[in-house]
């Protein structure tokens, strides 16, 4: 339900109550305004929560990145090798499962799933 739908429904109930209640118009208007304020504050909180959640999700992706798939690796790319726990540079993608990488020396290795991550993984 949207904020507008809730306020419209409440206004309809308030109109009925206003026509049948023995409350003074000013008192009933004050109660109406308080409830409308509560509805507005609730939806402001919901929007702020969504915004904070999106920001936190972005930080989570930086702190806990997903591993690269073989297709995402390319020449010149710096990655974190989670097997050796050091950064390395992809020198050449040689075939479907072979990579030439530099660990201060050139090495040809076989690609393994969940091994190569964005360099930010080193911060963990």
Description:
The chain is of the alpha+beta class and 124 residues long. It is built from 2 helices and 5 strands, in the order ααβββββ. Strands 4-3-2-1-5 form a 5-stranded antiparallel sheet, with no helix packed on it. A hairpin with a 4-residue loop joins β2 and β3. The longest helix is centred in the middle third of the chain and has 39 residues. The relative contact order is 0.11.
In short:
The chain has 124 residues and is of the alpha+beta class. Helix content is 46%, strand content 19%.
Termini, distance in Å?
41 Å
Continuous helix count: 2
How many beta-strand segments?
A: 5
Task: Tell me the strand percentage band.
Answer: 15-25%
What general outline do the C-alpha atoms trace? rod-shaped
What is the SS-derived class?
A: alpha+beta
How many domain modules?
2
Widest beta sheet: strand line-up: 4-3-2-1-5
Average per-residue pLDDT, rounded, comes to 84
Question: Radius of gyration in whole Å, from Cα?
Answer: 29 Å
Oligomer: single chain
Largest sheet: 5 strands, antiparallel
State the order of secondary-structure elements, H for helix, E for strand.
HHEEEEE
Poorly predicted regions are none
Helix percent band: 40-55%
